[in-house]
Structure formats: structure tokens, C-alpha cells
Amino acid sequence: MEFQWYPGHMTKAKRQMQEDIKLIDLVIEVIDARCPISSRNPDINGLANGKLRLVLLNKSDLADKSANQKWIAYFKSQGFYCVELDSRDRKNMKGVQATLDEVCAAKFERDRKRGIKNRPVRAMVVGIPNVGKSTFINSFAGRAVAKTGNKPGVTKGKQWIKLNKSVELLDTPGILWPKFEDNTVGLHLAFIGSINDAIVETRELALELADFLKENYPGVMNARYDVNEDALNHEIITDIASKRNFVKKGSELDYDKASAVLIDEFRNGNLGNISLERP
Known about the structure:
The structure is a single chain. The protein is of the alpha/beta class. The protein has two domains: 8-171, Rossmann fold (3-Layer(aba) Sandwich), CATH 3.40.50.300; 201-267, Orthogonal Bundle (Conserved Hypothetical Protein Ylqf, Chain: A, domain 2), CATH 1.10.1580. 42% of the residues lie in helices and 12% in strands. The chain contains ten helices and six strands; from the N terminus they run H-E-H-E-H-E-H-E-H-E-E-H-H-H-H-H. The chain has helices at 8-20, 43-47, 65-77, 93-113, 133-141, 183-192, 202-216, 220-225, 233-243, 255-267; strands at residues 26-32, 52-58, 81-84, 121-126, 159-162, 167-171. The protein has a six-stranded mixed beta sheet with strand order 3-2-1-4-6-5, with helices on both faces. Helix 7 packs across helix 9 (233-243), helix 7 (202-216) crosses helix 10 (255-267) and helix 9 (233-243) crosses helix 10. It is elongated. The relative contact order is 0.16.
């Protein structure tokens, strides 16, 4: 399978971000902890050049804990601030706020020396579709200020959100880039739901996911579905349909439903803490 999804609104959103970056002190980049490299838009580095950078390793509760710690060390070695995050849990926001305070302390001091008082830090929140930007903003704000949805492309335009006297956030649409140089990137993004499912071949994706799980997390499919992982991938999907009693009219096993369940249960964390990439 080859993956590509770059609808027209993303081109417009990127142009708008290039204009808005002039107003920004800090770029907060939300990525998916299960595939931190694949879920980073490579265009952001050029866009945010010279700006303070904070990487939020979101959905870390779904990822492999040992991998999370390695990724935090990796991003800090690259000169970024980095925080592990489950954006649905407000308790996580204390760590984000503490890091924001640290990031912004130097800026407030510069402003003070120049005689500028009480100008809030302006932060742009960026990331690819469906990594949880809007959920993070709502949790951080403590109120529903950004539209959320469990699919890519919910945020279509920019939105300024005043969090408090010291921080203003600019929410931006999730944007991908025009061409994935490595098809593994597209595969990982399809696994986590950052590519529109309507253009993805569910059966093929489930076979690829089964292959990855057999090689990297042996036993998780057996534990969840009571299947023989030594079987061929398509036999595993068929076995899932049988064990879950997914049957179409005419008593034929529903292979498509079993494929979708494997993908959904990976995305929701039902298969355990799984990382697709390690530094």
C-alpha cells in the first residue's frame, strides 16, 4: 500500500501558519508517542526556525513506557523541551505548565529589561491530524475551547485562545506534508488514524499491523483474541472473525469487521502499550 493524503485546506493552513509565526514566541508541537518521528511534520522545523520549541509526547499512555523515556531523552538532546502527556488527563497539565514557566522565564526577563510589562507569551500549537492538539488545548484551558473529534481534519481554521494573563495559544489545523519519502511513515500514520480511513484499504492495513505485532510484540494478539500467531496474517484475521463471531449474512465470516477491530483496538490501547518506533 502507498499512502498519501493532502487535501486542499492543508495548503492554505500552511500559508497561514507561515504568516502567523511572526507573532509567536513559542511553538508547541503535539506528536503521537507511539510514532514520534512519523507523526512530526518535517516542514515544522523550517517554519519554527529560531523559535522556542516544546514537544508534547501525547498519547504516551498508549505507548511503550520504556520507549517514552528514550524519546524524551532524544528530543532533549536535539535542543527541545519535551513533556510526556496524556492530554485527556488534566493532572498531566501541571508538568506542561511547569515546563512553560521554564521556557518563558527568559522571555519575561527580556521584556522586563526592555520596559515591556504583562505581554503574554504567544504559543502556536502545531501537529499533524488526530494527534490530540484540540484535546490538549481543552484540558490545558480547563474548558471546551477547541473542537475535538476522533478523526483527522476536525480543526479547519486558526483560533486564538487566551488561557490566562501570561499565555495565549493559537490553535492551528493539523497538516501533513505533500509527499511521504518513506512509505513506513504513511503506514504508521494510517495505523494511528492520522490519515483519513476512507482512503485506506482496511484489510491491507490490518495485515500490516498483524505483521508488525507478531514481530515486535509477540503474544499480544494471542492474549487478546486467542489466536495462533504462527499462522499466516490473513489466517489470524480470519481467526479473529471466528472467535469474535463476526458473521455476515449467509454465515460467511466478516473479514472486514475483524480487520477494523484489530486496528481500532490497537488505536484505543486494548492490545496494551505499543510503540511503533524507537529512537
